[in-house]
Amino acid sequence: MKKIKSNNKKRTVEIYFILYLAALVLLISKTNRNNDIGNDNIQHKNFDLPFILKAEKPMLTCKVWIDSLGQQCYELDSINYIWNAGEVEDIRYDFVVEDKEQNNSMHLTGNEEYESRVFEFVEDKDNNMAVFRWHPNIYIYENKTYIVYVSATAKLINSKNKQRVKAKTQFSLVVSCLDNNQPNYNNEPFVDTNQYNYVVQERLSYQNFQNNTVNNTGELNLFTSPSKIKGIAFQEWESKVFCMGANLKTDLTSVPKIEIKNTPSNNNGTARIVSYSDNTIILKGKVPAFGSSKVFVTIERKNDLKEATISFEVLPQDIEAPIYPKIMYPEQTYVFNPKLPLNIGNARAVLKTEGNKIRAENYQGGIIEFKPFQNDTGKVFVFERYINDVLIGAAINIKVIPNEKPIITRIAEKDKSVVINVSSHGWYNGKENRIKKLDLTGNASYKPLYGKISVDRAAAKWHEQFEIFPVDERQPFTFTVVAVDNMGMTSQKETYK
Question: At 272, which helix (H) or strand (E)?
Fold first, then answer.
């Protein structure tokens, strides 16, 4: 920054007081603008990693004053670098300058070369940035505050998603006049003989930056998202760290450093740097078995030895207990829900026999529906869950047992007859395993009461009623009864006198 003429020390306090007021205006200004530029195929996010923008300076200032000889002097910080980071391509910038006092805004268009305009920007794709420059009109002697809203859209590299992602940042421009005297009483423009050299010096500075000969001296920051990573214990995690203010390949004193702190120390969590590009570090590691791991990434810029460190946590994700039947009956359909987290690794649920013959499988870790055959009765099935071919939890054994025998649940007298309730269970040959017949001995006969049938399909229970009456009403009404289902299984014997 070139100083045109030294200022009176008495004015210093006034300068920084005005800058302080301007910063307060910036903080309370609205961040959502009605003239945000976008279109329907853009994802609108203020901070959409892995694509981010960051301005090198939060504020550019121009200080103007009249010296004791009546000459107009100024100091100008005119250039700001807007960095972008992320695995993106085809970046398109958009700049809008808002005049806070006049409550209006100006939309900028980028040019390859600087022109004599108040606000302008150029894109530098080779260095992943845009360069903003302003030339405030110092002859209009008044305090001014502007907000520069920067947005950019881009395509994700190697992504099938055609939508463009969006990132935003902003900074302020402040013009501070240090007294109320008009600089030119004859309304003649003041000509600064040093102005031309100043402009040339700025242009050369930008060209040097393009040639990678400029030294980064602004802010140095690292970003990552999310701040907490959850995964299955012992599974691999991956994260990305983005750098602003340095080229990771050319501007560091050494390669990025990584440190991991496990709590407790024996939880087997690991972390390593896999690779890094100009502004992105890719990390991988193993999720701890329990507790947590805290990963620290540190870089140091070689021209000023400034350091930046960022950290994030890796936590084992609790996996719900699976839902499964404790036992199975033949020809009945059962649901197995492995309860595996969505979008984590290669999830798989398997149901197999003891001989490792797979009978049912779901490669997305989703629900399995399974119906054992009659000849599976007595077999033990094994239910297992995997993520990335690693067994999660213990294998679960489930036995297929025979259908329950029918049971006579009630005998009720009714005038000169009795009514009995009988329950049967399960399926046989694809049909409900109902009561096939009643075996009666004694002075008795029966008929089914079809209107009294009820079913419980979830439990595969079939409830039926039968009326038993005497064959010879002159003889004592006594009998024994056994219920027989379609499979040929019999109930206990019941006697009536």
Answer: strand 272-276
Question: Two tokens at 469?
Answer: 């009456």
- Enumerate the H helices of 309-415 as residue ranges: none
* CA nearest neighbour of 218 among 444, 35, 1, 483: 1
Kindly write down the DSSP assignment for every residue of 347-362, as one continuous string.
EEEEEEETT--EEEEE
Percent of the chain at pLDDT exceeding 90:
40
Amino acid at 314: V
> What tens digit of pLDDT does each residue of 77-96 get?
888 988 888 778 888 899 99
Residue 225: which pLDDT band, with cuts at 50, 70 and 90?
low
Tokens of 13: 């306090």
Rounded to whole angstroms, how far apart are CA atoms 409 and 413?
A: 14
* Of residues 73, 205, 92, 217, the one with CA closest to residue 139: 73
Q: Give pLDDT, residue 206.
A: 38
Q: If we measure between CA atoms, which residue out of 19, 1, 25, 179 comes closest to residue 98?
A: 25
Is the distance from CB of 170 to CB of 55 less than 8 angstroms? yes
CA distance 340 to 407: 40
CA distance 95 to 120: 9
Q: CA end-to-end span of the chain, whole Å?
A: 115
What is the spatial order of strands in the sheet that 435-442 belongs to? 435-442, 479-485, 494-496
- In Å, what is the CA distance from 193 to each residue of 4, 135, 394? 10, 16, 83
Residues 6+ apart with CB under 8 A from 277: 248, 249
* Distant-in-sequence, close-in-space partners of 167: CB < 8 Å, separation ≥ 6: 45, 47, 48, 51, 52, 53, 84, 86, 151, 152, 154
Angle at 239 between CA 238 and CA 242, to 5 degrees: 155
